[in-house]
Records
---
Amino acid sequence: MASTDTPSPSLDPGASDDPGWKAAWPFLVAVVIVLLAVGTIALFHVIKPGSERLTESAKVTRAINDYYTAKNAVNYEQFRSLSCPADLLQPSFPTDAAFEQAGQASRTEHGNITITDITETAVTGSSATANMHWRYTKNPKDAVLPITLVKASEDWKVCGAKGP
């Protein structure tokens, strides 16, 4: 019978299962890479916010959406700020009271304006056009409304909207 005098490694009281810091290096490198990526993204958002990275067509779409959101909310200040400067000078431009009264009456009768799509956006310098596909919530019949916009101080403004 052969006898072995050396104990197995798992029975060695001096042996340790702790691999030390060497085993943690891949994890630490991955954490540093993730932190650098997140930091870079955050830095880009601080330097140039997402709203400044939009294309002109996207800015036109946003202006139309915001304009009709103001009408739905009967928010005169926002509606006025999104209206074309030439429209503001027209005697037919509604006053705060007239806007509120017309907005409440429209919402009661027809419901809110729902924009289903904005298509055929064309931007030419400081003017733009787009077709707004919309409907009232109480009348699900779709309609198309051509919208004209002008750029004033880097913001797009809705001009002469004939519709809801």
Note: Strands lie at 113-124, 127-136, 139-152, 155-159.
---
Amino acid sequence: MEHPLSLFKHCPECGSVHFEIHNEKSKRCADCGFVYYFNSSAATVALIMNERNELLVCRRAKAPAKGTLDLPGGFIDMFETGEEGITREVKEETGMEVEKAEYLFSLPNIYVYSGFTVHTLDLFFRCTVSDTLHYKAMDDAADVFFLPLKDICTEDFGLSSIRKGLKIFLGKADEY
């Protein structure tokens, strides 16, 4: 896989074409000295359970992995905390109001969007919502429904970090 830095041809500070590899994480401009570090983007994932021990899952409406299962979540906007980001994403995708977001763990992921490789750090949150009976598929979710934990097949989930995160969560479900 080509490193994402290879797509950046000009210095974002001065526009120079002398924007060269500095090390495995950065490029440096030979003209102005600006160094750009390519870091992961922060993303969130919601684990929402109902009183019947079922997990809220979504069906992806858009690429990547369109049509596969997913969990509510998405990219954290600038100036948002992880908790604010997951609260907003759950509301946008399901209409549900998050009352509490408890950080559980994180996993690195590679998310290809419009042909561009985005390295993400996915933050998994156990979310408590005010109402588990009223929700609807919105934004980039084609469908939203609760699935009994015993019926979850991680291979049905299209993104690798979600599959890995579910394996961790299901392995420790009694602790969460």
Note: The first helix runs from residue 82 to 94.
---
Amino acid sequence: MEIPTDQEIRELHERLAPSPEAFERVYTHCRIVCELAEQIIDRRSLAVDVALVRAGCLLHDIGVYRLSGPPGEREHYIRHGVLGAGILGDLGFPETIRRFCSCHTGMGLTRDDILRQGLPIPVADYVPETEEEELVMYADKFHSKSRPPVFVGAAHYMVAVRRFGDDKAATFEGLVDKYGEPDLAPLATAYGHKVV
């Protein structure tokens, strides 16, 4: 499998972004998630495919550009992962890359989650299956594209994820134990985003 370069990924973001503001918000978030994942890899000496993780981080939110309505419209935002996987599929990307889009939402979405919550996506399991997928999903939880963008501490995310069930909170807690909590302060300073 050929992994796209950072430059190829940036050009794809530029091509798909409906506005410079959307590009800046989404692409910056993807870069931050990449830096968080690389920090975790280094701190835990993880034996993962670093180039694949990097591409997954930089591409995971590509579907956000296809959402209708104002950016961040929450009732349809859940679709961005599936939309991103579809975009990458249309462009000929392999399933290994497309899965970073479809499997990073929340703590992963199961068929049961989709049916129980009536989510507007095809009924399937969208959960990480590899450590690379899990790491991208996990790193993504520590930064939000909200307006203004913020870094999210583990305690803050735990409160948010608990709304979706104790099982989701337990999954996140297990990932914190496995990967540790990244050091958000240097990135918050570098990007000018506060930590919540």
Note: Residues 20-44 form the longest helix (25 residues).
